[in-house]
Amino acid sequence: MTLVPEDVQVIGFDGIRSVGNIDYICSTIVQPVQEIAEMCVELLLQDNTSLKPPLVCFPVTYVYGGSTAEALTVRQ
Question: Within a 13 Å sphere around the CA of 47, how many CA atoms are in the beta-carbon half?
Answer without folding.
Answer: 0
